From TrEMBL:
Coiled coil: none annotated. One of its GO terms (cellular component) is cytosol. HAMAP family: Glu_cys_ligase. This is Glutamate--cysteine ligase. Keywords: ATP-binding, Glutathione biosynthesis, Ligase, Nucleotide-binding.
């Protein structure tokens, strides 16, 4: 990074905005998927802005707003956990792992329920499609999505520094796709450093062929795995992978997504109208799986059209496992590293991704997620096979300048320290969460369900004891009431037929 660019950018970093979406399963005291309904004391899962459900009725999703102050973001997430812990049915736990707890048969996994309004029925129909296409088990996998945007002042400074002739809005979108391509290239490092799903409960694998090794009576694992959640055994979609998306720019991306939203899938044609939203490869934009997504804030327009009109406003990093050792699933130091990584991806060179490189990226991620801690592991690159450690040292070394920039901008040493902590994992892989989990399971002669249940029980005490102001509790209680009233209003006022509503909501009007 040149001194001139560093000087231009350092004063803009305080405007970075970040937010967290945390998925977690409600379980019984014995670590099985809870069969209770979403507690009414948490409000409406359809309309509550911060407490909702993901795929399953027992799968909570806690969402913070976007903050420029990171301490406020973590306080918000802690407050949400405290509020939820106090509202759960007696003795229920929040499952601390990314891979699910003890699962019943598919037919006994209840998809999320949202009421009788048209918008609720659409959400439920979409989830029915997910269940029929991929099975319910895969959908119960949980994780953390880290939302991140660089401030307008940062992009204005970059726009001027590079003497770009594009409009600022087009330039920002272009640069977010620049960032996304680099996240795809270098994103293998996230499961290596933070992957926390090297083992799983045997109930997840019911009816599936696999190459995992048994551990005790109830668990399977791979000895060098980092994140089975992100492997081919986890959250993947083989049908989509046949049609790679072009991430060169906004127009190419929208064209690719539009095609998948319109293209009928032979694989899903046998499902009738009541079993999915439509027969396309993607029912909705949200069905597009990937390590990172371009995003735009607009509740009125469908995501495709909003991005077409307004461009990219932030990115959603989707590859962070819930760390079962941490009450919130991630730490502030980890958050510091993620922001360094994402900013590095915005600033480092980022050529176009060829189809061959995209396939190589998939191979690299599969190797890291299933055997990332194997000594002397080689990873495929465009320059040939390179050792994981060598690649990691080069990548993290290249982030030193960004860490110095952040330390200067925030008047701290926290960012350099977070980078230093992650560098240590390359020379001592026992420091990774995946290694720690397997070491604990081996040392204590316990399986995945026992380990995560013990940790979950401890975290519930932490959540309950977190100090939340009376004002915050009052605001959260008000949101419960407001969200329930909003759901009731939606159910009362339904002017269109459901089929007309569905046609309107799923129409592709983007002309990009």
């Amino acid at each position: 990074m040149t001194k001139k660019r560093e000087k231009v950018l350092v004063g803009t970093l305080g405007g970075i905005r970040r937010g967290i979406e945390k998925e977690t399963i409600r379980t019984t005291p014995k670590g099985a998927l809870a069969k209770t309904l979403h507690p009414r004391t948490l409000g409406s899962a359809l309309t509550h802005p911060f407490i909702t459900t993901d795929f399953a009725e027992a799968q909570l999703e806690l969402i913070t707003p976007a903050y420029t102050n990171k301490n406020q973001m973590f306080d918000c997430l802690s407050s949400l956990h405290h509020f939820v812990a106090g509202a759960l049915p007696k003795n229920e736990l929040l499952w601390a792992g990314s891979l699910p707890p003890v699962l019943p048969a598919d037919r006994d996994i209840t998809s999320a329920q949202y009421g009788s309004s048209h918008s609720a029925r659409m959400k439920m129909r979409y989830r029915q499609g997910l269940a029929n296409r991929y099975g319910k088990r895969m959908q119960t996998i949980s994780g953390i999505h880290y939302n991140f945007s660089l401030p307008g002042a940062f992009w204005q400074a970059m726009h001027a520094h590079e003497k770009s002739e594009r409009s600022l809005a087009d330039y920002v979108s272009e640069k977010y796709f620049h960032l996304i391509r680099n996240v795809m290239r270098h994103g293998w490092v996230i499961p290596f450093l933070f992957g926390a799903s090297p083992a799983l409960d045997k109930s997840y694998l019911e009816g599936r062929e696999h190459q995992l090794e048994p551990m005790g009576d109830h668990s399977f694992y791979l000895p060098w795995a980092t994140s089975l959640r992100l492997s081919s055994l986890g959250y993947t979609n083989s049908e989509q992978s046949k049609y790679p998306i072009n991430y060169d720019d906004k127009m190419a991306y929208l064209k690719g997504v539009s095609a998948l939203l319109a293209m009928p899938s032979e694989k899903y044609r046998h499902l009738n109208d009541n079993q999915q939203l439509n027969t396309a490869i993607l029912q909705l934009e949200n069905e597009l799986y990937g390590s990172v997504r371009p995003k735009v804030v607009n509740a009125e327009l469908r995501p495709l059209e909003a991005m077409c009109r307004h461009g990219v406003e932030y990115v959603e990093l989707r590859t962070v496992d819930n760390n079962p050792y941490l009450p919130l699933g991630l730490s502030e130091a980890q958050s510091d590293f993620l922001e360094l990584f994402l900013t590095h991806c915005a600033l480092a060179p980022s050529p176009s991704l060829t189809r061959e490189e995209q396939l190589m990226i998939q191979q690299r991620v599969e190797l890291v997620t299933t055997m990332g801690r194997k000594p002397d592991l080689l990873l495929p690159t465009v320059d040939g096979d390179v050792s994981l450690v060598e690649l990691g040292e080069a990548l993290l070394g290249a982030m030193d300048d960004v860490a110095a920039l952040f330390d200067s901008g925030f008047n701290t040493q926290a960012y350099s320290l977070s980078l230093s902590l992650e560098k240590q994992k390359l020379s001592d892989m026992s420091l990774t969460p995946s290694a720690m989990m397997l070491a604990d399971m081996t040392a204590n002669d316990i399986g995945y369900r026992e380990l995560v249940q013990r940790l979950s029980e401890g975290h519930m005490l932490t959540h309950s004891a977190y100090p939340v102001s009376a004002e915050t509790v009052g605001q959260l209680n008000d949101l419960v009431t407001t969200s329930l009233n909003q759901q009731a209003e939606l159910e009362h006022v339904q002017e269109l037929s459901f089929s007309t509503f569905l046609t309107k909501k799923t129409a592709i009007t983007c002309d990009c």
